[in-house]
């Protein structure tokens, strides 16, 4: 379900014991509704160590932010860890504007998340 078309997709893989979900395309109300169950299932595992790679996301709206918050809460309920890989300054600015920058561990690169 991951391709280069302008819609959206999620590809999940495990790297160094860390579950990495790469999201591509627009993370809007339509996409959030379609992928929320898949991301929820990743948060249901024991003590999840999850990285959401958003480098290929081209658009993020309030539904996308809501999805991120929901995923964060589900991971924390299981005493897990959620990290976001974000390189787009617009998304970082959006997190600051809605006062969520401290709610997420944000990385600029995937390497530190899977190195250990």
From TrEMBL:
The residues covered by the STAS domain are 8-116
InterPro entries from the UniProt entry: Anti-sigma_ant, STAS_dom, STAS_dom_sf
Single GO term (MF): anti-sigma factor antagonist activity
Tell me which family the UniProt entry assigns to this protein.
Belongs to the anti-sigma-factor antagonist family.
Q: Output the NCBIfam families linked to this UniProt entry.
A: ant_ant_sig (TIGR00377)
Q: Protein name, please?
A: Anti-sigma factor antagonist
Source species:
Streptomyces botrytidirepellens
